[in-house]
Amino acid sequence: MTSRKKSQFRLLILALLICALFFPANGADILIFIQVSPSVLNLQNNGQVVTVHTNIAYSAVVASSVSLNDVTISSYKADNRGFFVAKFLIDDIKGLPLDIGELNTLSLEGSTKTGDLFFGTQDILVIDVFQNGK
């Protein structure tokens, strides 16, 4: 094999590896980054929603498939970068079995329009100001 053909072969292998990393086959789980707001959930908070920002394209998501710890999504939108943003009713999140004064893991799950599953997690602190006296 000539030096040029070896270089072309290496480039082809590299391109295939990059495609496999960034464009997984259907049915693959995709790990995404999420940012939950508020990052500290006060059970005495009178807020309306828990918002989850992601790094997955809004246009790729089947919004009705998205849940947070099995809580159904309430509303959704695209942020100014085109990423998916999910909103959940705060009372539904407060209704989860939560450990007060501890970090609790929230897991966002859903599917893409191509059938891939995606997920991301974040730990948030749960407090109850009246219970803890803080």
Description:
The protein is an alpha+beta fold and 134 residues long. The protein is built from three helices and ten strands, in the order αββββββββαββα. The protein is elongated, with a radius of gyration of 20 Å. The protein has a single domain (26-132), classed as Immunoglobulins (Immunoglobulin-like, Sandwich), CATH 2.60.40.10. Strands 1, 3, 5, 6, 9 and 10 form a six-stranded mixed sheet that branches. 22% of the residues lie in helices and 46% in strands. The protein has helices spanning 3-22, 90-94, 129-132; strands at 29-31, 34-37, 40-42, 49-57, 61-68, 71-72, 75-78, 83-89, 103-112, 117-127. The longest helix has 20 residues, at 3-22. The termini are far apart.
The name CATH uses for the topology is Immunoglobulin-like
What does the main sheet amount to? 6 strands, mixed
Determine the N-to-C terminus distance: 73 Å
Helix content: 10-25%
CATH superfamily: Immunoglobulins
Structural class call reads alpha+beta
Throw out a few tags for this protein.
10 strands; Immunoglobulin-like; 4-stranded antiparallel sheet; single chain; 134 residues
